[in-house]
Amino acid sequence: MDDLLVVRTSRTLQGPPSPQPLITEVSPGSVENSHKEILDLLRSDPDLQSVHRCLKYLTQRPENRETFDIRFPNPLVAQIAHALVSIIIPTYWPQFRQDASLKETKQLLLCAVRNIPALGAILAQLKTTSVGGNNSQTLRRSNEGDEQGLYLVQVIEELFDDNLIANICDDISNDGPQQQRKLLWRDFVQAVASTRIVSTVAEYENSRSKVGQTLERSWLSSGADYSQWLSRNIVKMVLGLDLEPENETMWQVASQILGNAFSMGYISELLIS
């Protein structure tokens, strides 16, 4: 893995962030320490250049399956995923959407959160922005969480393309740690082939409407639309599989996803997509 130069920056009230003289060189032999330094940097209000370099490093595929991999859960991955979701997305997502020159950084961010740990972090953070009631404290929290929740929904919408299931299944099948795979398959099926995403996004949208805010409803909060997305993904996944023995687990997962999808109650949408 290429060496990484981590440049720490500080923000002032005047002008853009300026580099500080503290530069840490991370060698290939200190992978775990380098990721801890990246976590510290993500938590320290980094500038765009630092964010880009961190994301590029995080999304590199390790040569050794036993080393750190942002796609698969461990305590450090959970902390990095939380930092990306609670700090980097709220701070920079609007710029990523509006500035075409930041397309590469935006794609690196989406790559970094296109996995089970980050998806769980996004849904957990989105739930914290859902509020109820009409008192002033609730309204203040609602206003503070409104934009953050909107950004998180937009991120999920971009992540959930017609290749998501096939891509994550390939990641687990080809690169997932052997001792974790059974748990990874279970968590993935429970995350995407259930009402969890639909209900979480719908809860967020309903909480906004309760405090008088108007927002455009996402297709993610519609069970019918989500079922159509599921069916397209299942078809895309199985079309890429053959009947070789090494694909047996993938066929089993496709069957589980389809079975769970039918239990959501939108059979007609699954069949016509």
- Principal-axes geometry comes out as globular
Strand content: 5-15%
Please give the order of strands in the largest beta sheet: 1-2
Total of domains:
1
* Average pLDDT reading: 81
| N- and C-termini, Cα separation | 42 Å
String of helices and strands: EEHHHHHHHHHHHH
- Uncertain residue ranges: 1-30, 132-140
| Integer-rounded radius of gyration | 20 Å
Taking the sheet with the most strands, its summary is: 2 strands, antiparallel
What structural class do the secondary elements suggest? mainly alpha
Number of helices: 12
The percent of residues in helical segments reads 55-70%
According to DSSP, the number of beta strands is 2
Describe the structure.
The protein has 273 residues and is mainly alpha-helical. The chain has one domain (59-272). The chain is 63% helix and 6% strand. The chain has twelve helices and two strands; from the N terminus they run E-E-H-H-H-H-H-H-H-H-H-H-H-H. It has helices at 31-42, 48-58, 75-98, 103-112, 116-128, 136-159, 164-175, 181-192, 196-210, 223-239, 248-262, 267-272, and strands at 4-10, 18-26. The chain has a two-stranded antiparallel ribbon with strand order 1-2. Strand 1 (4-10) and strand 2 form a beta hairpin. Helix 3 packs across helix 6 (136-159). The longest helix has 24 residues, at 75-98. The chain is globular, with a radius of gyration of 20 Å.
